[in-house]
Amino acid sequence: MNPARAAGAALVTGAGRRVGAALASHLARRGFHTLVHVNRSAQDGGALVAQLNASGASAELIVCDFADEGALRAMAARFMAVPAAHHVLVNNASWFGHDMPGAGDLANLDASLTAHARAPYLLLEETSRRIGASRLDVFNVLDQKLVAPNPDYYSYTIGKYALWGLTKCWRMAPVANMRVFGLLPGILLHSGEQDDQNFEASRAANLLRRPIGVSDLTDAMDLFIDNSGLPGQDVALDAGETLMGRRRDVAFDPAVHGG
Asked: Within a 10 A sphere around the Cβ of 131, how many other Cβ atoms?
């Protein structure tokens, strides 16, 4: 597919694997010319792009280290240079590691803030300046634990709070044709050293007693993409987990796993 004939243009950060790859695939198959951003997973990202293009979709690989300001600006410029009436930016890239208050590490915090705050901050600044007559929808992938916090994954959580603050501020920005959404999913995939038994118990430990899947994210994105009159907003995609008030992450919650 020629990018100029695509339904629009999409940029998904951290799209080489896992959730990002699924989101990028979904947007490409919807007809968006999709920029698949990677840093260390260029091989995976390249394979995904090849697969999408072979299927008749339109995608390209873009490699960018978030620590490189010039590369971030260039990525935003490339994205907004795709001729399209509708641009979709998905800030999905993440840093994830386990730590707790009292055992923090500045290196973890720096990595979390780079992925969750610094890069989205700059991408939003750069894309908003190039919006022109295009419509720009931004989806920031957050976490349901921001509504119902616990101390696990301390540095990760701080970074996600920063992204949530960015989301709220940009929602009130006086930029025409731009909407900003926050997607707050529950547990989607195995995290850390979680085994299959722990994962299956954790993903169904919510009020609706059903697992959350990537399709919950793509369904929410489709709703907003297809309805331009809906304002930017935050959506918890967690089957009610935010209402349960855990003292630990679900992977460590003794009420779920015993102990």
From this structure: 15
Model pLDDT for residues 24-77, shown as the tens digit of each residue: 999 999 999 999 999 988 999 999 999 999 999 999 999 999 999 999 999 999
- Distance, in Å, from the CA atom of 250 to the CA atom of 257, rounded to the nearest integer, reads 9
Under 8 Å between Cβ of 61 and 39: no
Whether the Cβ atoms of residue 127 and residue 104 lie closer than 8 Å to each other:
no
Question: Which DSSP string do the residues of 56-97 spell out, in sequence order?
Answer: T--EEEEE--TT-HHHHHHHHHHHHHS--SEEEEEE------
CATH classification at residue 73: 3.40.50.720
Question: Is-contact 186 239, C-beta < 8 A?
Answer: yes
Range of the domain at 100: 3-257
Q: Could you give phi then psi for residue 88, rounded to 5 degrees? A: -125, 120
DSSP 8-state code for residue 232: P
- Domain count of the chain? 1
Query: Per the confidence metrics, is the pTM higher than 0.85?
Result: yes
